[in-house]
Design a protein that fits this description.
The complex is a heterodimer of chains A (249) and B (253). Chain A has 249 residues and is of the alpha/beta class. Helix content of chain A is 36%, strand content 24%. Chain A has a single domain, classed as 3-Layer(aba) Sandwich (Rossmann fold), CATH 3.40.50.300. Chain A is built from ten helices and ten strands. In chain A, helix 4 runs parallel beside helix 6. The two termini of chain A are 25 Å apart. With 253 residues, chain B is mainly α. Chain B contains ten helices and two strands; from the N terminus they run H-H-H-H-H-E-E-H-H-H-H-H. In chain B, helix 2 runs parallel beside helix 10, helix 5 packs antiparallel against helix 6 and helix 8 packs across helix 9. Chain B is flat and about 65 Å long. The interface between A and B is medium-sized, with 39 and 30 residues.
């Protein structure tokens, strides 16, 4: 077995106020996989995500990215390898223009000049936003801003893309466009979502996090059709949606 | 999320003035305004000269006159003050029509009005032709302290986001029958302001997280610098240098 891109072992974490969010999480993601991280509100999904790039450091247990442990000394490299796209693109896009925003990550890695330009162009092209390179982010539509947010992370050429609620607040067309983009990328994806049909569409594998532990890890279709499991962890399919009726891709 | 095109003052265009680098324009306009302000109030002919200069600069922007005039409303308080000055100032009085007004006040009022008007037109020449983010980049180029420039940059970026938050809160208040007509509404407005502050503070924290996630280490990376050619400087210096010559003529003659 090759080294997993993401190797989380026995990860536990309590916030400084004493609230414990994670109780021993185990998670492996291998190269090229697209995995959905499901779970009710308050399950600890965001806390887990913040451990993956070292914003939070493990209270107990360990996190490793392609074999490199997430520790204080190698945070910059970890953050290059793990690209996190946050839920609100207005939080992610803080520079005055799209170009500067996409440059921010690779520039922090020390890139300059033609190499930097090439990264920016490529990342924006991957999400179909190259035409908007000199626009200020606040003049873009919400769906466009989300795509630029994805590009800001792609420009760092991460080994794994972590998306927090990628489909939230998108209209159906933008939601589908984003799905097409994600499918076209040659990158490992971990996607935190409440949008179960989206998980089924994009991710062959799902992991269910509930009350700070992983309670299920398997094929998305199996998990979504396991009624007892779904009910026990406050997961519900949208009205009228039956995963069994969706042709397998 | 409203993605409105609230450009504010900037008027999209491709005139000579639009194309000048922001820091060149900043220096030119600032120097010009300093020269204008340094001119004694009684030198009416000098102000006429400045007016011609600034109107020529404003004309070169090719921004419609109406666009300028509407945005000159910011000058109204100065105008009101200037109109009052001849009546409230002391000293020898002169007759102007049916009124007896202070001579000092009259001169002061003229100086204030002339300086304010020329200053506002000059500032608008800069603001209508320069995007806010270019202004920030220009200030950075002029070596304004990095922290100040970054704060300004974030302000430019998030002004609309915060304004949107404010608008949504207003709509939510009014949807529940609230109207701010009397003093008794103030506590509600104050708590709205508090909520907006907390919201913005929390957004600041999230933005910081997003920055850290992309390798931020306490310094904004500098990826490119604004460059101005000698021709840019020559062109932009026409305004302040000519004004300075006018002033120098006044001093020498």
């Amino acid at each position: 077995m090759t080294t997993p891109v993401l190797d989380v072992r026995g990860l536990a974490y309590a916030y400084p106020d004493g609230h414990q969010a994670l109780y021993g999480v185990n998670l492996h993601v291998h190269r090229g996989e697209r995995v959905a991280l499901l779970g009710p509100n308050g399950a600890g999904k965001t806390t887990l995500v913040l451990h993956l790039n070292g914003i939070l450091l493990a209270g107990a247990g360990s996190v490793a990215v392609s074999g490199m442990p997430v520790e204080k000394d190698n945070l910059l490299e970890v953050r290059r390898r793990v690209g996190v796209v946050f839920q609100d693109p207005d939080d992610q896009l803080f520079m005055p223009s799209v170009r500067q925003d996409v440059e921010f990550g690779p520039a922090n890695l020390g890139l300059r000049g033609a190499e930097l330009d090439a990264r920016v162009t490529r990342a924006l092209d991957q999400v179909g936003m190259l035409d908007f390179i000199d626009r200020p982010p606040h003049h873009l539509s919400f769906g466009q801003r989300r795509r630029v947010a994805v590009a800001t992370v792609l420009a760092m050429e991460p080994e794994i893309l972590v998306l927090d609620e990628p489909s939230s607040n998108l209209d159906p067309a933008s939601r589908r466009e984003l799905a097409d983009i994600l499918r076209s990328l040659d990158v490992t994806v971990l996607m935190v979502t409440h949008d179960l049909p989206y998980a089924l569409e994009l991710c062959p594998r799902s992991v269910v996090l509930s009350d700070g532990v992983v309670v299920a890890d398997g094929s998305t279709r199996d998990i979504l059709t396991d009624e007892a499991l779904m009910k026990a962890h406050r997961l519900e399919l949208p009205f009228g949606f039956d995963p069994r009726s969706v042709p397998s891709t | 999320m409203g993605a409105g095109h609230g450009h504010g003052l900037h008027y999209h265009g491709h005139s000579v003035v639009h194309r000048l680098p922001a820091h060149v324009k900043l220096v030119a306009i600032l120097t010009f305004v300093i020269v204008v302000v340094a001119t004694p109030n009684r030198w009416v002919w000098a102000f006429a000269g400045y007016a011609v200069l600034v109107l020529a600069a404003a004309g070169a922007t090719r921004v419609p006159v109406g666009y300028f005039v509407k945005r000159m409303v910011v000058e109204v308080p100065f105008v009101v003050f200037a109109l009052l000055m001849p009546f409230v100032a002391r000293g020898p009085r002169v007759e102007v029509g049916p009124f007896s007004v202070s001579e000092h006040g009259l001169v002061g009022a003229f100086g204030l009005l002339a300086k304010a008007t020329i200053g506002v037109v000059a500032a608008l020449t800069l603001a209508t032709t320069t995007e806010p983010r270019d202004l920030v980049a220009g200030l950075e180029r002029l070596r304004l302290p990095r922290q100040l420039v970054e704060i300004m940059g974030f302000m430019v970026r998030y002004l609309e986001v915060v304004t949107d938050d404010l608008r949504r809160m207003k709509v939510a208040r009014e949807s529940r029958g609230f109207t701010a007509r009397t003093v008794s509404a103030w506590p509600v407005l104050a708590s709205s302001a508090g909520a907006l502050f907390i919201k913005s503070y929390e957004r600041g924290e999230r933005v910081h997280l997003a920055m850290l996630s992309r390798g931020y280490q306490g310094r904004m990376p500098v990826t490119r610098q604004l460059h101005a050619t000698a021709a840019d400087w020559r062109l932009a210096s026409l305004l302040p240098v000519t004004a300075a010559l006018v002033l120098a003529a006044g001093v020498l003659l």
